[in-house]
Amino acid sequence: MTDRASLFAPDRNCWRIARSEHVAAIIDAADYFRFARAAMLDAKQQILLIGWDFDARIEVEAEEGDEGPARIGDFLAWLVDRTPGLDIHLLRWDVGALKTLGHVATILSLLRWLRRRSLHLRLDSHHPTGGSHHQKLIVIDDCLAFCGGIDMTANRWDTREHRDNDPRRVQPDGKPAKPWHDAAWAVDGATAAALGDLGRERWKHSGGGPLKIPAGAAACWPRGLPIDFTDTDIAISRSIPTIGDEPPVREIEDLYRDQILAAKRHLYIESQYFASRKIAQWIGQRLDEDDPPEIVIINPVTAEGWLQEIAMDGARARLFRALKAKDRYDRLRLYHPLTQDGAPIYVHAKILIADDRILRIGSSNVNNRSMRLDTECDLSIDAATDAQCERITVIRNELLAEHLGVDGDAIATRVAENGSLIATIEAVRGSGKTLQPYALPELTEEEKLLVDNELLDPEGPEEMFEPMTKRGLLRGLSFHRRQAR
User: Fold this and answer.
1) Which of 65, 285, 385, 415 is most buried, by the most CB atoms less than 10 A from its CB?
2) Pairing state between β 46-51 and 87-93
3) Can you list the positions of beta strands (E) in 15-134?
4) Structural domain spans, the chain
């Protein structure tokens, strides 16, 4: 049994601490889609579907014997027809919705939904200019909830094997989709009810009316979903930007700081980006220590889209170069996962694991906008028992095993022998499915200017219109190479 104080502090680095009888960390969207669909079949009163994106055309695999259409848009319409008294509320980011409105299948789904009074759709415009609604939640009868980095949309489905040319990994139009790595939580009990409160509040802020709170539901854990933790306290942390007279919420930023500074031996991070000046500053603070923890970061080879590539990949290069100048004990590494045939696996998961103590999964990326410009929601566990510590270690080892194409026990054995994540990765990685070390690129002067002024990744709505003379990706950081002592 651990005897240290919890890292969580409500009203500072988290909104609430709530308890769940059952908790599962779901890795990759094949399992997420399947179990979310199975859970929705048991809904009786209310489903909240809240996300950055939603595509009615995607097909979601059913558990054996389950009823209902495969396409998610048709499935939701069928579900309310089959279940009298069930209301489904779908809330998605308004700007992101524009790209799917041109799809015929989406238009047909909307027309079918308009004929059903129990299906409610809203587009969330309650965000600053340049910001987005980025939380990803499914809450069912306040009894079960999913929260993490996975949207019910195209190009998310994949298995933990990330097989090359997997015929099931396709876009709605039948074209192949690229390998994709993601993660989310499933939680029940008071945590699910708290996420229901969060979802209903977000619906209200978007301009919708108040939603009823579901009456108490019976046990609703999806059959077949393995349980990682029982009787566990979960911290719910948010990012909410300044909007009008509403005060900002920066729990996610504060939690990153506290979790990075608390790590003693290992800090393992998966993120779509590595572009946050503040997170780099806290990592740099750790690297300045005489015995810093190992810090392993898993990123995609490159960000999606040319604007993202310039802004996020350029910031990653600038920050990582500065951090390596401080890394006198070689404790910092950044890797990209590759398939068996060497194709890049797109990392969309947002995971932080500190030692065997902290496990965090959510929607926030390691970039500026996730701290202060977009709305985000992360859930974290601070292990309170030896069993929880052991399970967090297993989940971390299984993630490394997934990326390196080996068995989790092989990773566990190596780490037990050498005590090092970096030494284990370097010993195991090779050809085939593996982790490839990050190679620092050379940026053009134009790219440096764009990145250093954070034009595409501002630290908050107030910076969107701030003079460039007050900006600077490396401001506040003193990154100078130091001699090992």
Assistant:
1) 415
2) parallel
3) 16-27, 46-51, 87-93, 119-124
4) 18-232, 235-470
Query: 441-473 in b/e burial notation, b at 16+ Cβ within 10 A?
Result: eebeeebeebbbbbbbbbbbbebeeeeeeebeb
Mean pLDDT, residues 344-369: 97
pTM for the full predicted model: 0.91
Mean of pLDDT values over 139-150: 98
CA 441 to chain CA centroid, Å, is 26
Binning pLDDT at 50, 70 and 90, where does residue 98 land? low
More confident residue, 394 or 440: 394
Q: What are residue 185's phi and psi, to 5 degrees?
A: -100, 155
Q: Which one, of 373, 35, 374, lies nearest residue 224 by Cα? A: 35
CA 172 – CA 59 distance, rounded (Å): 8
| Residues whose CB falls within 8 Å of the CB of residue 453, separated by 6 or more in sequence, listed in order | 468, 471, 472, 473
454-485 per-position pLDDT tens digit: 545 566 565 543 443 444 566 555 544 444 33
Q: Spell out the alpha helix ranges (H) of 213-290.
A: 251-262, 277-287
pLDDT at res. 350? 98
Q: Say how far apart CA 283 and CA 355 lie, in whole Å.
A: 15
CA angle 287, 291, 295 (to 5 degrees): 50
* Contact between residue 384 and residue 233 where contact means Cβ atoms under 8 Å apart: yes
Question: Residue 464 carries which side chain, given as an amino acid letter?
Answer: M
pLDDT of the residue at 427 = 97
Q: Rounded CA gap, 123 and 132, in Å?
A: 11
pLDDT reading at 409 higher than 90: yes
In the structure encoding, which two tokens stand for residue 465, read together? 């219109």
Asked if the 235-470 domain carries CATH number 3.40.50.1820, the reply is no
Give the chain's length: 485
Using CB atoms within 10 Å of the CB of residue 95, give its burial: 0 to 12 exposed, 13 to 18 middle, 19+ buried.
middle
d(CA 260, CA 269): 10
Model confidence pLDDT, tens digit, residues 215-270? 977 778 999 999 999 999 999 999 999 988 889 999 999 999 999 999 999 999 99
| Fold (topology level) of 18-232 | Endonuclease; Chain A (3.30.870)
